[in-house]
Design goal:
Distance between the termini: 53 Å
Protein name: Hydrolase
Number of helices: 5
Structural class: alpha/beta
Organism: Apibacter adventoris
Radius of gyration: 17 Å
Largest sheet: 4 strands, parallel
Order of helices and strands: EHEHEEHHH
InterPro entries: HAD-like_sf, HAD_sf
CATH architecture: 3-Layer(aba) Sandwich
CATH class: Alpha Beta
CATH superfamily: HAD superfamily/HAD-like
Number of domains: 1
């Protein structure tokens, strides 16, 4: 069984970015997360939100059928020293709309994760730009540095 950990941002990744409100769910976000959980992935909610706004996000996800392995921490019950709390967490993959190239969408994110596991490629982060964009940009540097 898979025991990989995926840290997932909320605003702009699970839902449209309407912070401090909760935006509409991103297409296939909850379906993809459920599928990943079925495959044994442990999901961490990794978000800027805190306090009541964080609780709203957790409840929103719970109503949509997603309960997280941990929230803004590496594992459930992790305790931080007051005023020394690190926002850095331990995960195998990080899914965030602020990665280079933007968020490619949940269909592609799911495919990237599954392909990495099937082919045994180890990465600490999913680059959030699509294979299509990478193929289109093969000549990117040659266009920029053209003499």
């Amino acid at each position: 069984m898979n025991n990989k950990i995926i840290a997932i941002d909320f605003d702009g990744t699970i839902v449209e970015d309407k912070y401090p409100e909760i935006g509409k769910p991103m297409a296939f976000a909850f379906e993809s997360m459920k599928k990943l959980q079925e495959k044994g992935y442990r999901l961490i909610l990794w978000t800027y939100r805190n306090g009541d706004k964080l609780q709203e996000a957790v409840e929103f996800c719970k109503k949509k059928g997603i309960e997280f392995y941990a929230i803004n921490s590496s594992f459930e019950g992790e305790v931080f020293e007051e005023n020394k709390q690190s926002r850095k967490i331990n995960a195998d993959y990080f899914i965030d709309d602020r990665n280079l190239g933007g968020f490619p969408g949940w269909g592609e994110v799911y495919q990237i994760i599954v392909e990495k596991i099937e082919f045994g490629i180890e990465d600490r982060e999913i680059l959030a730009y699509s294979k299509r964009k990478r193929k289109k940009d093969k000549g990117f540097f040659s266009r920029i540095f053209k003499s």
